[in-house]
Amino acid sequence: MKLKINLLIAQFLLLNFIFWGIAHSTNLDKTSGKTSLILTLYKNGALFDHKGYFNLKRGENQIVLTSICPGLISESIYIFSEGVTIRDYSYFYRPITISNLLKSFVDKEVYLMQGKGKDCCVRKGKRKAKLVSFRANNAFVLTDDGLFEIESSKIIFPSLPEGLSDEPALKISLLADREGQFPFELMYLTKNLSWKACYTGLLSDSEKKIKVFSKAYIKNGSKLNIEAASLRLVAGDINFNKGPVFRDYAPRKMVMEKAMVAAPAPASPIPRREDVFEYHIYRFSEKLNLGPHEGKYLSLLKAVELSAKKFFILQTKGSYYYAERSNDEPKRLHPLIVLEVDTKEKGLNEPFPKGVFRVYKRDSTGVPVFVGEDRIPRVPPGEKFDLRLGKAFDITAVRKQTEFKRIKSKISSKDYYNKYISSYEIKVHNAKKKEVTVLVKENIPGDWTITKENIPHVKERAHLATWKVTVPAKGTKVLSYSVRIFD
Questions:
Q1: Residues ≥6 apart with Cβ < 8 Å to 323
Q2: Which of 165, 212, 216, 435 is deepest in the core (most CB within 10 A)?
Q3: Ranges 25-29, 167-171, 237-241, most confident
C-alpha cells in the first residue's frame, strides 16, 4: 500500500536523527568499533555471531544495538562482554506501517489530500483534519465540513511518531568496571536463512562410473543485506525449534569490519570439513555477501568419480491382495530404474549431506541428457546410496493371480484362524538388445511361507520376498510361486 507522507526526505532525516540520538545518549556510536560476523547456516535456520566493541563509561550504561536480522528467535539471544555485567536486555520493534501510523495519530491532527469519488468532499491541495478512528484501509476524519470516511492512503502524516523504526533493535542495560572499549559477542538464532546440498552426476558410457559435482545453495529469506560474513554450513538433522521471532523490516546494511588494504591470497572455493559434536561443519575461506531475498550457489565437495551399478526393481505397493481373490484384469507394469552409488573410493572419506541428486548421460553425439533425479538422505563416509531415477521403457511385466483358497480352521469353540493359499505368475518381457536382471519384490503379510517357486527367493525382511529374474535380450521370463499365509 502506498503511504503518502508529507516531506518524505525530512522524515527520513528525522528517523536517522532518532537512532543517532539513541546511540550518542547511550554511549554507543553505531559506526565506531569494528564488528565482524560469523554466519552458521542450518537446513532450516541460521546462527548469527557478531563480534565488536562497546564504548562504555564506568558504571551503568544503556546500549541499543540495531541492524538485527529479522526472524530473530528472541529466546536464543546470548550476549557476553569481558569485564561487563549484563543486567538485562529487551527487544523492541514497531515498524513503519500504515496501521502503526494510524494508531499513533488517533485524536491528533493530520492532513488530507485531494480525493475522488467518495472523497470528493476534500478540497484541492491539503487541509487539516482530526483522525477519529480507522478500520482496515479506511479512516474517519473530522473537518470543518463534518465527519468523513476516507482512504488511509489520502492521509498525510505531519511527522514520524516516536517509537516507530525501520528495524528491530536490542536494548541492553549493563555495568562496566571502568571506562573504555570492551569487546563483546552477540549470538542469536533466526529462521529465515537456510542452506541445502545439490548434486549433479554425469554417467559414463558404460554406466559403471558416475562423476559427481556438488553445490551448496545458500538462501537469504530476510530483507537484511549481509556483507563480509565468515560462512559455515552444518550438515545433520538438528532439532531447531521455533520460538518468538521478529518479522521482516526494510533493507539496511549491517556495519561490518572493513576489508584489508592488501589483497589476500586466492582462497580455495572448496570448504574445509570439520566434525563438531555429532555433525559435520563446512568452513568457507571466502567472505559471503548476500543481498535481501538472494540465493547463491557455492562449491561444496571436490568433484569425484564413484562406482555405480544400475538395477531394475519391480515392487508391489500393497499386500492386501494375498488375502483375497483378485478379479482385476492384469496390467502392464514398468520396473523402477535404480542407480546404486558407492562412495567408498580410494582416498575419499567424505559424507554426503542430504539433498537432491540429478543425473545426466551423454548421447552418441556428446550432448548431455537428463535421465532422472532423486533426494538422497544423509550418507556417512564410505556408504552406498540408491537413486530412483524413473521407470524403464523397454522392460515390462504382467502380474496375475492363478489360484486362491481360504481355509477357515477352528482353534476352540469361539476362536478361528484363516489360512490362505495364493499363487501368482509374473511375466517379465525385455525388448532391449541385451540381457537384463529385474529384482521382483513382493510385500507379503502375516505368517507366510513360499510353498512352490521356479526361481529361489530371498527373505529380505519379515514382510518382503525378493526374486532375481534374469531376462534374455528380446525375450521373456516367467516367475511363478505359491504362498501359504496364516493370520
A1: 406, 418, 420, 445, 446, 485, 487
A2: 216
A3: 237-241
Dist CA 27 CA 397 (whole Å):
78
- What is the model's pLDDT at position 98? 85
Nearest CA to 271 out of 234, 236, 237 is that of: 234
Full-model pTM: 0.75
Residue among 168, 167, 193, 185 nearest 39 (CA)? 193
Tally the residues of the chain. Answer: 487
Instruction: Answer yes or no: is pLDDT of 459 > 70.
Output: yes
C-alpha cell at 406: 481360504
- Residue 388 scores a pLDDT above 90: yes
Cα–Cα distance measured from residue 426 to residue 405, given in angstroms and rounded to the nearest whole number: 19
Residues in a beta bridge with 139 = 134, 150
Cβ proximity of 417 and 409 under 8 Å: yes
Pair 159, 110: CB distance under 8 Å: no
The answer to whether 359 and 372 are in contact (CB under 8 A) is yes
Q: Does residue 265 have a pLDDT over 70?
A: no
